[in-house]
Amino acid sequence: xxxxxxxxxxxxxxxxxxxxALTYNQSKDDGSCNTPDQVQKELDILKxxxxxxxxxxxxxxxxxxxxxxxxxKSPGLFMYLGIWFANDVDFNNELEAIKKLHSKYGLGKYVKxxxxxxxxxxxxxxxxxxxxxxINTVEDFLVEEKLDEIEITVSDDWEIYDKRLVKAVDYxxxxxxxxxxxxxxxxxxxxxxEKLNKLKEKSRGKKVVFGQIGWPTSGDVGLxxxxxxxxxxxxxxxxxxxxxxxxxxxxxxxAVDAPWMVANEYVKYEGSFGxxxxxxxxxxxxxxxxxxxxxxxxxxxxxxxxxxxxEAIDDQSGIEPKTEEKSDVEKAISPVEIxxxxxxxxxDKFESVKEKKEAPSNECYSAKxxx
Length: 371
Hints:
Glucanases play a role in cell expansion during growth, in cell-cell fusion during mating, and in spore release during sporulation. This enzyme may be involved in beta-glucan degradation. Active on laminarin and lichenan. Residues 1-15 form the signal peptide. One of its GO terms (biological process) is polysaccharide catabolic process. It is an enzyme of class 3 (hydrolase). The protein is of the alpha/beta class. The chain folds into 2 domains: 8-317, TIM Barrel; 328-370, no CATH class. Helix content is 37%, strand content 11%. The chain has a 7-stranded parallel sheet with strand order 2-3-4-5-6-7-8. Strands 1-11 form a two-stranded antiparallel sheet. A two-stranded parallel sheet has the order 9-10. Helix 6 links the parallel strand 7 (172-174) and strand 8. Helix 1 (36-46) packs across helix 2 and helix 7 (229-246) packs across helix 8 (298-304). The two termini are 39 Å apart.
């Protein structure tokens, strides 16, 4: 398992409109590419609702770069960066785009996790063997670039994980849409945690989290029933509060509606998972408390609500860290030399150097000479 070096602290928040992470896609309603200015505007809005945005893909519309540029100009978010692929060509293009992003920006400032594939096994675009190979390729890149702070996972259904895949990832991500499975909104949270607990049984002790989880706010057709703002909010309250109480990370699907995803009239609901209206700025849910975790403990809030430090914000925006100016005496003494002295000799060392500085001399004294 990799160890994160992000300077994150957690703090209690009173806002019940905040999600651990949100899926974000910049595409316009018709699926065409959006502008960098619009992406900037939307991400500034989303800071109110999350500290992490999940970009399912990297290269399409230069989505990942637009997100990083927006964060650089207005720091305060991190990314789960996805590699979307339907074949090897897609994967290679995505990985090449990621390499270019790292060369240009330094991914460690912005990315927490690289997600290799979006339902790659369930959608039959990859076998487990092939997926593990792709994960290892990404791992090689991260190791080569010394990006130990970035983790690797896969977003797919709970059933597809076997020993090979569990071993390959840093942590396990389980994505599911209960509405698509005709699970009633009142039972959806129990259904998801039942599957999560089954997945934990074969996780080999690795962390198991929820990937993309959500409920549509409109679009009922035929046998699909229950898509509404009210039902979505009921499910949100049940699901988010339980993830907080049990300390399970999750990504809510989605930040904005995606009408371009609707392939035909039988799947109208697919375009209506966003927390924002079609104007991509007004919230669908009313009031300041979208969910109300009555029995939530302060510890649970601390664990589930990531906040970004000023140090990380400066890092994202390219501001160099401030360093205190050392005195001439401090500059003159090597840290190595001080370390060799006993504590009671340190003051003597400073006094000795001070005398040298005050006495007239033609010698050029430097810290380098003290080694």
